[in-house]
């Protein structure tokens, strides 16, 4: 039986596959969600999908914080149509996802959160700038395994939550420090964690929850 939370929407160049996790207390007889969280997954040409365990952890964590957590497959992944566009068309697709979810009655209002892992941090950092230029406010960014040094991650707001693994073999910690240093941006390090936070996902969740504020 198909997962009722996973379905297709229309995007700029074709269908986009999304998964929506609603806070359990949200419903017709309950208050609307706290806001909307868009979650972006790692690089599609390196096996990244919206079902990646870190992306899934981000979605579950933000859902438990009261947000409607929306994941989508980038172009060419799963049932999402199109070809990989190096993070450019992917931003356009995320705007379409945001427009779709904002059209839902229970999440038309409320703040927007952007949360990404690896390549997804690169995409979301630039999406955040586009949204700001269009007078769309982003409440908070959460960047995990920030892809600094590998892709041109844009500068981010000073309250961005940045989490990295001490033993990340894909994105060296020094590259993240080099990106964060000019911004005077704190970076939270999880000791012993690799790029995919194997056996450290509970710490990732705890850091986000403890760092959260309205």
UniProtKB/TrEMBL annotation:
Domain Serine aminopeptidase S33 intervals: 55-149
A Pfam family that the UniProt record links to this protein: Hydrolase_4
Keyword Chloroplast: no
Coiled-coil ranges per UniProt: none
InterPro entries noted in UniProt: AB_hydrolase_fold, Hydrolase_4
Keywords tagged on the record: Hydrolase
Entry GO MF terms: hydrolase activity
Keyword Hydrolase: yes
This protein's name: Hydrolase protein
Annotated organism of origin: Mycoavidus cysteinexigens
């Amino acid at each position: 039986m198909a997962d009722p939370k996973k379905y297709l929407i229309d995007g700029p160049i074709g269908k986009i596959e999304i998964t929506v996790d609603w806070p359990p207390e949200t419903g017709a007889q309950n208050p609307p969600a706290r806001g909307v969280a868009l979650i972006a997954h790692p690089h599609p040409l390196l096996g990244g999908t919206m079902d990646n365990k870190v992306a899934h952890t981000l979605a579950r964590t933000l859902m438990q914080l009261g947000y409607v957590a929306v994941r989508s497959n980038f172009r060419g992944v799963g049932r999402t149509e199109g070809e990989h566009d190096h993070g450019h068309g992917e931003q356009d697709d995320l705007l379409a996802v945001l427009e779709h979810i904002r059209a839902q009655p229970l999440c038309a209002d409320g703040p927007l959160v952007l949360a990404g892992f690896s390549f997804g941090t690169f995409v979301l950092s630039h999406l955040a700038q586009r949204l700001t230029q269009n007078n769309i406010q982003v409440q908070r960014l959460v960047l995990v395994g920030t892809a600094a040094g590998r892709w041109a991650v844009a500068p981010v707001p000073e309250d961005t939550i940045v989490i990295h693994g001490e033993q990340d073999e894909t994105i060296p910690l020094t590259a993240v420090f080099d990106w964060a240093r000019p911004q005077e941006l704190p970076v939270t390090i999880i000791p012993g964690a690799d790029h995919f936070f194997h056996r450290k996902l509970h710490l990732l969740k705890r850091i986000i929850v403890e760092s959260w504020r309205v």
